[in-house]
Amino acid sequence: MGIFSRRNNDTPSNPEMAELGREYAIAKRHGDRKTVNRINRQVGTSGMSDSDRTSFQQGRESYDSIPPIPRGRNRRK
Predict the structure, then answer these.
(1) DSSP state for residue 28 in the 8-state scheme
(2) Cβ-contact 60, 22 below 8 angstroms
(3) I need a labelling partner for 36 at 20 to 30 A (CA). Which of 7, 25, 26, 44 fits?
């Protein structure tokens, strides 16, 4: 692999927390405040260890690394 390879073998230690982080990133991008608040409450009530926190962050970054689709121009008059 080259220097600028995007592939990495960093698998999260807790896949459930990684999935929760991915759902959080999706809700944040789409402006779904209800889901963001639900996930924040869920994360706040559960005692997160450092490995859970890094898994959550890896899940967020996995979705945030995907660039958003640019919206087309509105050509109506």
Answers:
(1) H
(2) yes
(3) 7
Q: Is 71 helix (H, G, I), strand (E, B) or coil?
A: coil
Q: Specify the length of the chain in residues.
A: 77
The token duo for 69 is 């689709």
Could you report the per-residue pLDDT of 27-76, keeping only the tens digit for each?
999 999 999 999 999 988 877 888 888 999 999 999 999 888 888 887 77
Write the pLDDT tens digit of every residue in 5-21: 666 666 778 889 999 99
Token pair, residue 3, equals 């220097």
Q: How large is the greatest C-alpha to C-alpha distance in the chain, in angstroms?
A: 55
pTM (two decimals): 0.74
Q: In the chain, how many H helices and how many E strands?
A: 3, 0
